[in-house]
Amino acid sequence: MKTKILKVSPFDIDLNKINIAADIIKLGGLVVFPTETVYGLGASALNKDAVRKIFAAKGRPADNPLIMHLDNLERIEDFAYINKELFEKIKIFVPGPITFVLKKKKIVPDIVTANKDTVAVRVPAHPIANALIEMAGVPIAAPSANLSGKPSPTIAEHVAEDMFGRVDVILDGGNVDFGLESTVIDLTEEIPTLLRPGPIVPEKLKEVFGKINIPDFVFGKGKVDVAKAPGMKYRHYAPDKKTILVEYSQERIEKIKEIIRNYKSPLLVIFEEDKKYFENYDIMISGKKDDYFEIAVKLFSILRNADKTHNDVIIIEGVEDNGLGISIMNRLRKASSEIRR
Ligand code: TXA
Ligand code: MG
């Protein structure tokens, strides 16, 4: 397949280019587009054949459902059941980096939801994503635009690595804002359940929803409830290279020094503040120790780049499990082949 790459500035959107992409969606094709979280691989959510192409292009298992992206909340009732009280609550987060799981209506094709009776809905906060969905005139089903097993793409170059030749159009809108996929929250029961931690952190969710369940698997512990969180059983974002995560502690420097003795050529992914301890080593800087926003937005790029070097092992410093740190650690624990506490 011939892939067209169209550069679009999010600050000065060329609607002719969005129109080309929107026409492809209407015709049942595949379009990669930027969102505020990561790039998405989109097709018309109401066209089964088009959605089937998403699974093929990504190599995604058919039992892992897709998020349906809307350009605003008004149409949500066409696709999902939601009462007034809940609608008022989710409005607070919309548009934004959060996905709501609700009971689905019949119109949503089973292939989108992997035959489940629920559907995941999200209204992104990105001018290119929103313009594309609006011009296409249909909801867009879209997973992250990586091949299954690769980190989610946060720049168009990483999209092209995985998707060139597999999609019709890539809309290159530059860098994303967050670099971590949306928070996924299941609202089908009385007490909401966090299925995937993301940019909207648990404290914010509690402010609006009151009590929420946070299952142990969010912290890399316990068993995944596959019926509720079908995507969480897959080991996402794992570099091919051996990857050791050193959980955050005061003794982290000593721990890393001990680990690197066992390897010929380690690559260290560490905080700006810690580089002075490892002057003669190959290093990538994850960010400043307490700037979780910076660490999150660079994380997937670093993992991709780290996997391309000649080093024999990647050793990564973890952050603390609070706020956005919970979401960062959720991804890092999945990415690593070994965890040192
Ligand atoms: O930020 C994001 O959410 C990005 C952008 C493109 O919107 N999308 C994304 O999609 O990360 P994906 O497919 O890579 O991750 C969606 C997650 C998966 O873990 C999937 O299992 C879960 O959402 N999901 C989708 N529908 C669901 C449902 N009905 N019930 C439970 N989980 C669902
Ligand atoms: Mg994904």
Search tags:
ten-stranded mixed sheet; 19% strand; five-stranded parallel sheet; single chain; binds magnesium ion; binds threonylcarbamoyladenylate; 30% helix; 341 residues; alpha/beta
Mean pLDDT: 96
Strand content: 15-25%
Q: Provide the helix percentage.
A: 25-40%
Give the strand order, joined by hyphens, for the main sheet.
Answer: 1-8-2-3-7-4-6-5-9-10
Bound molecules: threonylcarbamoyladenylate, magnesium ion
Structural class: alpha/beta
Count of DSSP H/I helices: 11
Low-confidence stretches: none
The tally of beta strands, per DSSP, is 15
Task: Give Rg in angstroms.
Answer: 20 Å
Distance between the termini: 46 Å
Give the helices and strands as they follow along the chain: EHEEHEHHEHEHEHEEEHEHEEHEHE
Largest sheet: 10 strands, mixed
What is the global morphology?
Answer: globular
Tell me about this structure:
- The protein has 341 residues and is of the alpha/beta class.
- The chain has helices at residues 15-26, 48-58, 76-79, 84-91, 110-113, 127-136, 156-163, 202-209, 252-260, 292-307, 324-335; strands at 4-7, 31-33, 40-44, 67-69, 98-103, 118-122, 140-142, 169-172, 183-186, 193-196, 243-246, 266-271, 282-287, 313-317, 338-340.
- It has a 10-stranded mixed β-sheet with strand order 1-8-2-3-7-4-6-5-9-10, sandwiched between helices.
- Helix 1 (15-26) packs across helix 6 and helix 10 packs parallel to helix 11.
- The longest helix has 16 residues, at 292-307.
- The site of threonylcarbamoyladenylate (TXA) has 27 residues, from strand 5, strand 6 and strand 10.
